[in-house]
Specification:
Layout: H1 6-14, H2 31-40, H3 56-65, H4 75-78, H5 81-90, H6 100-103, H7 106-113, H8 125-143, H9 148-151, H10 164-177, H11 183-203
Helix pairs in contact: 1-2, 2-3, 3-5, 5-7, 8-11, 10-11
Length: 206
């Protein structure tokens, strides 16, 4: 069988040919060809040289095409936060198959919940509690970067001497301190408060 060139492989993959076909056999160790295969063929990971299953460049292109291909890569790739987030952005249900470490990672969960609050119910209670703790810690870390007269406000204190935006930030702190609903709702609420605080923080004049 005639061996094809790299450029010919690019054209064939772009036209819809599958990487499993024997015509690509002489190029399965060519990283550029493998990346193109990952871009155009969602099943390409099953037919590439095993060394590429630990390659971040290949993995990024593969999960952009099909988030579930993450599960075919090495353990180190499956625990790479950036690549996991890319996979989740493509297919949120990939979260259900992640390692416990990734399921409990705050950045991963933030990416998941940004448009998929309903996914919280599918996560174990202990992971939900960890997620909430990360969220509440992040919120008050943000508060510590605010002007003293705001960050030192105690719950239920008087806001009479504060400007409008500062009052609103103080009220957000009270809400964060008073969260008493179930874990899932607490996660949604603290994520919402973090977003609100970020907006208010940008409106402040330090």
């Amino acid at each position: 069988m005639k061996q094809i060139t790299t450029n010919e492989a690019f054209s064939l993959l772009k036209s819809g040919r599958k990487f499993k076909e024997s015509i690509f056999d002489n190029l399965r160790s060519d990283k550029n060809v493998v990346i193109h295969a990952a871009i155009y063929d969602g099943s390409a990971t099953k037919h590439m040289d095993v060394k590429f299953l630990d390659d971040e460049d290949v993995a990024r292109n593969a999960v952009f095409k099909n988030g579930f291909t993450l599960l075919q890569f090495s353990e180190s790739i499956q625990n790479n936060v950036d690549i996991v987030i890319e996979a989740i952005n493509k297919h949120p249900k990939v979260y259900n198959y992640l390692s416990d470490e990734m399921k409990g990672n705050y950045e991963v969960v933030q990416a998941l919940l940004s448009d998929n609050d309903e996914m919280i119910d599918d996560t174990p209670d202990e992971i939900q509690e960890t997620i909430f703790k990360y969220g509440i810690d992040k919120f008050f870390d943000m508060v510590q970067c605010l002007p003293p007269k705001i960050k030192d406000i105690q719950p239920q204190s008087s806001y009479s001497e504060l400007d409008t935006i500062e009052k609103q930030i103080a009220e957000l702190q009270n809400k964060a301190n008073l969260l008493k609903t179930n874990r899932a709702n607490k996660i949604i609420q603290i994520n919402s408060l973090i977003k609100e605080l970020s907006i208010k923080e940008s409106e402040l004049t330090f």
